Amino acid sequence: MAGSDNSQASISKPRWLLAELTYACPLQCPYCSNPVGFAQHKNELSTDDWLRVLSEARQMGAVQLGFSGGEPLVRKDLAILVKHARELGYYSNLITSGYNFGENKIAELKQAGLDHIQISVQASSEDLSDFLAGTHSHAQKREVAQRVKEYNYPMVLNVVIHRKNIHQMQDIIEMAIDLGADYLELANTQYYGWAHLNRDQLLPTREQFEQAEAIAHRYQDRMKGKMKIYYVVPDFYEDRPKACMNGWGTTFLTIAPDGAALPCHSARELPGLEFPNVRDFSVRDIWENSEAFNKFRGFGWMKEPCRSCPEKTKDFGGCRCQAFLLTGDMTATDPVCGLSPNHSKIEEAIESSVATQRRAIEKPLVFRNPKNSQALAPKL
Amino acid sequence: MAINSNCILEISPTHRLQWEEAQQKHVILYPEGMVELNQSSTEILKLCDGARKLQGIVLELEQKFETTGLEKDVSEFLGIALENGWIRQLSS
Fold it and tell me: What ipTM was reported for this prediction?
């Protein structure tokens, strides 16, 4: 493959493979991390393509595998892929909305060797949950959660936190306890994709976030040894950026529904980068030699203040997608960093969302669906 | 967490202990996570097989490595493993 100039000895191997099987989804969450223009990318990979991708990535050392989407249950060949993954020695995670997840399918996937199920829940109350999902789904999610436990899967509940549900923090945690979750992921919204589009309506104020965080930490202590609570901090209220993806092209490999290989699931929104397709190249060739995967490896691409910063080995300059979305320059320091000359962009985003909240009539949320995607795509 | 010497130990059913060829080491896998193990941790965890208690594990290791006095280290490590949820105790 062209564009190779890295010494391959220094490239670590992928450990995490995120298989986004489809962009189709019965839910329409307005904070979805899929690219806003997802409806443009059709032509899903075939079963045989996926089987080959799983084999190739496993051979390179990938061991954690996420079946995601969209809604992965939409793919009719899911059990075939799960079975292959188990035979290869992956630990496979199904990341699902739980929508239409009947007992037959839960049993079939257990038989095929699925290791773990993560169910997304939008809120603790049915009306809010169904509003956010854009689909009547809350009641059946509770049933699915109970069934998943009956079949002895480890169960993770994932709740994305934002201004519309942050006041329910305590009820959300109580719901997870009630449903017997082994893990609860309280994920403050990361503002990419659809969440970026809806940021003014989703970003909580500092007071809202601090109150909710205190509740989460209290339960973390109380539930020790019973239910593990992962709390994903909202990086807009941090002073240093996250070590995004553990560094570009070091650990994570995402394969999009149409076969595009991405160093992270948001990378598709970066302009001018050509992402190689697994239909054309082997996983190894893509990982080691493609221009896209080598683009932000190491430290050579960095500008100041990152370049001379001792913390660059810890946070790798933060997130490339966030740098692009907020500054228009994907090689800039992540503006979350207090040392970034663009840090004011974060303050502006917070002020803008506070102003939106004060308005008598709030801007409506833009829901994630093919119609909105098609309408917005040409403007991207 | 202290290990109860009356309990049988096993790898948690939500976790998997597995050899990784690419890394040339054993790992523990669990929902969306992985811990890489060194050789002594691996030897201890392999014996958490749903049949042995603390004493049995220590004896087996002392015989295998022809040594004595391992109990304190083994017990400490298993305490950490229990706290992290890698293993669980079954009352016999």
Answer: 0.89
